[in-house]
């Protein structure tokens, strides 16, 4: 109900206030209205319900935003774990390759060492055989018996190859000794000889010195040709 004490000016202000409009103006007319302009403007019930609904919708939307952030963070964590596992896998594979390379280098180095020792070391049976064969080829009596183009060969293997040089190693008086036996033949048909070689270790030089090189002629007339004798 409209208060009876309100004047015409206050009536207009009261009607505006009930429709959400704030009271305007100051002065005598405003002061004659009993405190209506100090109250906050009232909103219609439908407007208040609409604002409440929007506020509730905003509050309800927050969990969806948090859920989306959690999903993104979870995906990032899973991607990080997969990336770390991939790096560990690649590191293990690289380490395996590194070990294989090291083993290959070791095996190759060992093979080169064995080849070098067999071909160039003074204590190698092949080196001693090669030196003795060269001395036989240059000896005048051997050339007279066997002819030119003298070649040497070892014991025959199961495959028919005659590249193996028979040798034995032993120690006498604290020094290493080695004995070899191989065969020679030349351009003279039917002529064959057996070469006997013995070497002894020289502690001063670290090499093997020849004790003797003797060739036994296996065809008639049989005899032995001394190539070198340091006994």
From TrEMBL:
GO BP: protein import into mitochondrial matrix
Highest taxon listed in the record's lineage: Eukaryota
Transmembrane segments: 95-116
GO CC, alphabetical: TIM23 mitochondrial import inner membrane translocase complex
Chief place of localization: mitochondrion
UniProt topology in membrane: Single-pass membrane protein
Keywords noted in UniProt: Membrane, Mitochondrion, Mitochondrion inner membrane, Protein transport, Transit peptide, Translocation, Transmembrane, Transmembrane helix, Transport
Entry's localization field: Mitochondrion inner membrane; Mitochondrion membrane
UniProt cross-references to Pfam families, sorted A to Z: TIM21
Family of this protein: Belongs to the TIM21 family.
Assembly and binders: Component of the TIM23 complex.
Role, per record: Essential component of the TIM23 complex, a complex that mediates the translocation of transit peptide-containing proteins across the mitochondrial inner membrane.
Record-given protein name: Mitochondrial import inner membrane translocase subunit Tim21
Native species: Elachura formosa
Upper classification of the organism: Eukaryota, Metazoa, Chordata, Craniata, Vertebrata
């Amino acid at each position: 109900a409209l208060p009876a004490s309100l004047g015409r000016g206050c009536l207009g202000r009261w009607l505006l206030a009930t429709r959400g409009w704030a009271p305007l103006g100051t002065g005598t007319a405003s002061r004659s209205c009993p405190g209506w302009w100090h109250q906050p403007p009232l909103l219609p019930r439908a407007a208040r319900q609409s604002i409440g609904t929007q506020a509730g919708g905003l509050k309800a939307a927050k969990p969806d935003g948090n859920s989306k952030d959690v999903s993104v963070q979870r995906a990032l964590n899973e991607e990080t774990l997969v990336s770390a596992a991939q790096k560990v896998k690649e590191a293990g594979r690289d380490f395996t390759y590194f070990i294989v390379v090291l083993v290959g280098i070791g095996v190759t180095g060992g093979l080169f060492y064995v080849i070098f020792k067999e071909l160039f070391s003074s204590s190698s049976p092949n080196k001693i055989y090669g030196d003795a064969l060269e001395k036989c080829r240059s000896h005048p009596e051997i050339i007279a018996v066997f002819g030119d183009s003298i070649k040497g060969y070892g014991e025959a293997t199961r495959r028919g190859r005659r590249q193996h040089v028979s040798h034995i190693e032993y120690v006498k008086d604290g020094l290493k000794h080695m004995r070899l036996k191989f065969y020679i033949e030349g351009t003279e048909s039917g002529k064959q000889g057996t070469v006997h070689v013995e070497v002894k270790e020289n502690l001063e030089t670290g090499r093997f010195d020849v004790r003797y090189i003797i060739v036994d002629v296996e065809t008639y007339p049989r005899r032995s040709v001394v190539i070198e004798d340091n006994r």
